[in-house]
Amino acid sequence: MATVLNRVDELPSGLGAANDADGYRPTADEPFMSLRQQAYFRDKLLRWKEAILLEAQGTLSQLQVDSLREADLTDRASSETDWSIELRTRDRQRKLISKIDAAIRRIDEGEYGYCEVTGEPISLGRLEARPIATMTVEAQERHERNEKVSRED
Length: 153
Known about the structure:
single chain
């Protein structure tokens, strides 16, 4: 998943270009979730989604071209394993797209960038690294600790 986000800069037709010609990045010096910051994160999310969809289209094309016709059973098993891993990756990315769409909806509703648990602003660094984040680092850590305790019971 992170590899797709990192490869956004490699997209064709300018899809990976910086948000503004001046290479804008949100800073703490400006009002939190200003229109410019919202536009920045919307663009980042849309480019991430586009990268995932392009990669998924490549997988689909490859599936249609390559068939599992290896004569050797070992080669066939290896190919099936490779495709199984690839399809699992695509399934995780399909779920990621729904999280990206939810983040875009939160931008539209004015809720993006605020923790769903505490209502506090999520740090710009966290949003930069994980634009689909819905909780502050502290709230996420509490959530994961509670989840761990629940699993141990």
